[in-house]
Amino acid sequence: MSAIDDETVGSAYGRAQVRELIAAMTLEEKLAQLVGLWQGVDREGGAVAPLQDAMDTVEQSFADFAAHGLGQITRHYGTRPLDPREGRATLTAKQRWLKENTRLGIPAIVHEECLTGLAAWKAATYPVPPAWGATFDPPLVERMAARIGRTMAGLGIHQGLAPVLDVIRDMRWGRVEECISEDPYHVAVTGAAYVRGLQSAGIIATLKHFVGYSDSRAGRNLAPVHAGTREVRDVLEFPFEVAVRDAGARSVMNSYAEIDGVPVAASAEHLTGTLREEWGFDGTVVADYFAVAFLQTLHRVAEDGGDAAAQAITAGIDVELPTGVTYLQPLKERIEDGRLGMDVVDRALERVLRQKAELGLLDAQWSPDPAPGHANGVSTGDVSADDVDTEEDRTLAATLAERSLVLLRNDGVLPLGATRPAPGRIAVIGPNAQSLSAMFGCYSFINHVLPHHPDRDTGLGVETVEAALRREFAAADIVTERGTGVDDGATDGIPAAATAAAGADVAVVVVGDRSGLFGRGTSGEGCDADDLELPGAQRALVEAVIATGTPTVVVLLTGRGYALGWLLDAAAAVVQAFFPGEEGAAAIAGVLSGRVNPSGRMPMSLPRGAGAQPYSYLHPPLGAASSVTNIATEPPVRYGFGLSYTRFGYEDFTVDAETVDVADAIRCAVTVRNTGDREGAEVVQLYASDPVASVTRPLAQLVAFARVPLGPGESARVHFTVPTRLLAFTDRDGVRIVEPGDVGVSVRRDAGDVILEHTVRLTGEVHIVTGAEPRISTVDIS
């Protein structure tokens, strides 16, 4: 029976009660609350976490491992194909066992991956984060996250390991597909929306990966980071700050990175100084999988597991995941021999127990069987283990996919049949035309786990692009040829593909990536690139099809941006799709037919080439093209770019005041008009520049945006209020400030295409940022 059954326990379980509980706990019971348990891992099929094979230990039974209690259950649904109803029953049994068979009767927090939807068999799977970024539609992302959260809550899950708030810095990095954008403001606003949505369902959002992970040397996964203080503070940390301070994120996961020689997992500067003391974060910090042990095995800053555990928990990591490699026996020995004080353990434990109290897990009346339609203290609506991929999920996934597609080039061939007779014969060519997995990213269950279980189907009703085109163009004769594989380099199928294209009215070539893990794909965690050409022989395939003279539409199903300058000059049309999820194929077919008017904008710059990486549009003057180097850096497609089947014009750009106090806000407005003949949505982008500053500054930076749907001839007035905090930077003394002086404010079609601009003067003394200032621009559309 539970020992926590007195009248003080409940949803109002406070700090005093938590401390009383801690005082009554044995050392073994304390440490048990600071670790996870990962069961059911396939040790033969291949790793789903870095160096998992090196970290695996003999799997204990649940009862043996959790005899003193348990902090977290790791990926109950996301480790192997498990029917949701069966999974709910076995999870309930585990929680009931903890309640009834441990001295304290404290249930575990259950966590799962949920970057593109709950990573579980049969669960709805949405587009990847670059697609969220391409929509420039944070409210839509918030709706998606809320839906994901309700599904998770209905299955007894408490914590989601998402969103990823790493800022894209190098297109060679395999995890670009998990990131929202190369712009920190864009990442911040979109990521905060995800956090609000997920947590509205009572699910703890976990920010990943704090901090610096995406800035690794040469775009290699889990490589050293040598970013300066200014880059870390002003670029890489900003999305995390917004997610903590503005969206109220309740958990943070450390980065695997080492920044200038110090592993983040052992950095009190970041995990305590910045996160807690500066930003006021009071949730839990959880370790990325095996990150604590890596302090010994990879970073070599710890002599053994106990030393690694002591460094991590002292720095601020509260919970070791995915299982108790160092926080159990090795940490226990450190405490018992006096090398680590109990106060450090109690600090982490208090945070963990307070979070469990917030979830209601310390309530005397808590039951592993929640009332129908309710879990984690909130309504889950119609979500149950019977249906984790509902019509509502499908509709939302379709909307996200449609709004995420970016039209990069169009010589008039698209939409098919709009300006010429509808094509009678369409050649559908390429390795991704008939691939279901090409719809999904590496953290989807389909690509993350199912490859290790080839006997199981996807559990989802998913169309290929070819199947969707057959439905969309039912009257057309559609012929197919694969041509080549994604990365096998085979060229023997290219002649047949060219022949099929030559006999068609239009050719649709579907190329790109295969998402996977640790070298099993061309994109994804541990799938980095040493060049940025399309993988394998895909460029040769595309060029052979184009050479036939048949109008060629190229559809890119990728997780990163590739060097495509050659393609943009040669193809009739190019559509960029970042792994668009379970409804992605229909969205692509809709854009090609014109049923969907493309409105996506690039969340990243397409690279000039691997030699121009790392690259960001947020570069200072010295990062631009120059006569003193022969390496061109200007991207063939800039951040924020995207075409439409209609046209938009801008007029009457005004500022409320030409002088603004350095600690206030810039208020401006512009009118956008649909000057074409069909409905569409424009992404209005507002940028700022600081022409003279005490440290070098980007030539331009995004400070606000708005997605504005308009009918033919309609217009809207878009009002922006931009806090001067968005112009802050770390000065030469390491202090975050806003300087007085002239600021350029401009409306642009993309990061480099200026339409209208004004100059505003910031007046007053240098403003030292306190943290109380607004960090997000407000937008009003009338």
TrEMBL record:
Residues 364-387 are annotated as: Disordered. The keyword Hydrolase applies. Pfam families: Fn3-like, Glyco_hydro_3, Glyco_hydro_3_C. Keywords: Hydrolase. This is Beta-glucosidase. SUPFAM superfamilies: (Trans)glycosidases, Beta-D-glucan exohydrolase, C-terminal domain. Belongs to the glycosyl hydrolase 3 family. InterPro entries: Cellulose_deg_GH3, Fn3-like, GH, Glyco_hydro_3_C, Glyco_hydro_3_C_sf, Glyco_hydro_3_N, Glyco_hydro_3_N_sf, Ig-like_fold. It comes from the Bacteria. Residues 682-751 form the Fibronectin type III-like domain. Coiled coil: none annotated.
